């Protein structure tokens, strides 16, 4: 059994064939797709976060809206770039969105991906301290965020407040119990996966690893997952973590599927340079359901993960993306023991 959700990049454009032509289209269709996915029996609705791009940038209004329109599906991000975040304000937003959803928030955070603009976090008012890298700053913000969502008091109360205070130091409000154990870190390397385990966060691994050892992507990612679990055990945390992987998977069940994805040429790993680092990109899957099942049996990282996020082509509209999700849930997942 696996948790199966979708991951939307939330693009919008006015290009030919796009059904998400404005930011409003993307936001409203994201809510509708989450509702449809829940009705189909999917387990998660996750959204990418990119700043200075025609994509979803501010996740918490969307997460709260999805939480209010649904009742059971997990709601998450993949991932929030912590270089851009005020950790205290983020803790308030996250607590509110989690309470609205009844404790269904699964918040993916990380250092973030390559940016649309140069050092975009500086426009948001953040810059690394002397001797610190932007990645260091992201981890510093994360450390503060993780601490305050635990719910402990830390702020000295005003002796003459506007409203009565509870005794002792004050905490961030609203506080959502249990949220701390539903934070995920998007790790791009095996070493970062080990760091994630030491911090007590769940592991989120995408279709890109910013390292390359020459082995197939799924095997390198499976090693990353194993290192995470080994380090978690060594750290002695008292709860069981989760691991997610992302994949582009399309079951070709009709002529529309074949027209969109039947001739894709990305069924092999690719190696390239990201941020001056040799990186390995995982393959996509698109085939008839019976052939797709056999191909997916060989993916060691999917087998090792408890959660699979299906990347969806959101610009093709809600109905088609619901069909993409339903095809995997009904035509593929049962044969692989995921359902």
Automatic annotation (TrEMBL):
Q: Please state every residue range assigned to the domain named Luciferase-like.
A: 10-257
Q: One GO molecular function term?
A: oxidoreductase activity, acting on paired donors, with incorporation or reduction of molecular oxygen
Pfam families from the UniProt entry: Bac_luciferase (PF00296)
Top-level taxon of origin? Bacteria
| Entries under Gene3D superfamilies matching the protein | Luciferase-like domain
Annotated Gene Ontology cellular component terms: cytosol
Protein name per its UniProtKB record: Luciferase-like domain-containing protein
């Amino acid at each position: 059994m696996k948790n199966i959700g979708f991951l939307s990049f939330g693009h919008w454009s006015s290009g030919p064939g796009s059904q998400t032509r404005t930011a409003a289209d993307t936001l409203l269709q994201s809510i509708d797709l989450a509702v449809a996915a829940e009705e189909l029996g999917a387990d998660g609705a996750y959204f990418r976060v990119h700043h200075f791009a025609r994509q979803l940038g501010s996740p918490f209004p969307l997460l709260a809206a999805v939480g209010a329109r649904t009742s059971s599906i997990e709601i998450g991000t993949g991932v929030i770039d912590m270089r851009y975040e005020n950790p205290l304000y983020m803790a308030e937003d996250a607590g509110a969105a989690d309470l609205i959803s009844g404790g269904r928030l699964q918040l993916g955070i990380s250092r973030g991906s390559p940016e649309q603009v140069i050092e975009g976090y500086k426009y948001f008012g953040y810059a690394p301290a002397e001797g610190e890298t932007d990645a260091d700053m992201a981890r510093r913000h994360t450390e503060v965020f993780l601490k305050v969502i635990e719910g402990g008091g830390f702020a000295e109360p005003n002796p003459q407040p506007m409203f009565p205070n509870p005794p002792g130091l004050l905490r961030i409000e609203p506080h959502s119990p249990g949220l701390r154990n539903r934070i995920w870190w998007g790790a791009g390397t095996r070493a970062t996966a080990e760091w994630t385990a030491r911090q007590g966060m769940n592991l989120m691994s995408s279709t890109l690893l910013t390292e390359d050892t020459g082995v197939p992507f799924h095997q390198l990612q499976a090693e990353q997952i194993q290192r995470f679990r080994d380090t978690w055990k060594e750290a002695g945390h008292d709860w069981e973590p989760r691991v997610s992987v992302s994949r582009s998977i399309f079951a070709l069940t009709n002529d529309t599927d074949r027209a969109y994805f039947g001739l894709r040429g990305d069924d092999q790993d690719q190696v390239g340079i990201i941020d001056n680092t040799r990186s390995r990109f995982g393959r996509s899957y698109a085939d008839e359901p019976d052939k797709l099942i056999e191909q997916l049996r060989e993916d060691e990282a999917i087998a090792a993960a408890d959660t699979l996020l299906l990347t969806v082509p959101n610009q093709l509209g809600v109905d088609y993306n619901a069909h993409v999700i339903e095809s995997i849930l009904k035509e593929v997942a049962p044969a692989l023991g995921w359902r």
